[in-house]
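Workshop exercise sheet. Pairs work together: one partner reads the sequence aloud, the other fills in the structure field after running the prediction. Swap roles for the next sheet.
Pair: D.N. / O.F.
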Amino acid sequence: MTTLRGNWNYPTSIRFGAGRIAELPDACKTLRITRPLLVTDPALAALPMIAKAVESCRSAGLGCEVFCDLQANPVESNVTNGVAAYRRGAHDGVIAFGGGSALDTGKAIALMVGQSRPIWDFEDREDWYTRVNVAGMAPTIGVPTTSGTGSEVGRASVITDLRDHTKKIIFHPRMQPALVIADPELTLGLPPKVTAAVGMDALSHNLEAYCAPFHHPMADGIAVEGMRLIKLWLPIAVADGSNIEARAQMMVASAMGATAFQKGLGAMHSLSHPCSANLNTHHGLTNGVVMPYVLAWNRSALQEKMTRLAAYLDLPKPSFDAVLSWILELRRQIGIPATLADLGMQAAHADTFAQQAFDDPSTGGNPLPMTPDKFAQLYRNCIEGRGL
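Structure field:
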């Protein structure tokens, strides 16, 4: 375990290892942050780890305050209120501390403190990121407390637009935190069900990046090793939440997924985003539910890739079916529901959500071309448990 520690610059500056949250004040000083706004979610804000982090900053002479007015699937008002808190406290940097919702909200706040345009003007479309006033952006430190989204190394935030109940990806290359403290001890209290859900999110990031039909061998290499770590360590992390090595390896695999998916995502995320935006389902859990159905849908385009992946994962009789069987068994082992019906989605939702899925930016990375009608059928497969 002592070897699971290091300072990396890939893709950003990362201080990885148990106990390294103690370096938070030094991280602030490295980025010349003297009055950080610590952005987290309400549940985490009530836990000792946040109080301890704030106290360590204040003891080092930093004017640290907490903002926690955000929800599991963040909306525009969460960001707007955070920007107001940032300005009210005369802050000069953001500590995004928590799971995906806190990380995404913190990064979006750091973006928006220097902008005069609405947040939707910076959606990940065409060259809209060039509209950003880069000089006004605040420096950000990412501190993940789950091992799923990998948002601490990402260049975007996913924010729900309540005007049409869609999730929109807000993007700028400099939204990536300048410094990350990845301390697996912060994930030790994560319940088994949450560990399983966020772990499937990490798997979906690695798997969809690997499957995306673009040429990016570096992303492919990161993705397959990320999946190998998940295969080995996610069941252990779910079964024994106190296993620090399992927690550390999953934290690495999560960051690897978010690094790899700069190559692209696919229909898993396209299906998942409308469910989260309209039904408030957990994003990682939803990805875990739809994963085998999407993989089976794309079978004709993935035979060779899945055979190579199966060999790397040391699965018996390497083939597409070997990978599909592994995913189905993993879901069963860690308690992921079998269908979207188990998450509250009904057949009546399929046609409405299908258009939103088709419009999702992730769709462009799917191995096979999609249409709204195809998404509606894929939704029905996921609801009824068909097509595997």
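Discussion prompt: The chain has two domains: 6-186, 190-384. What would you look at next?
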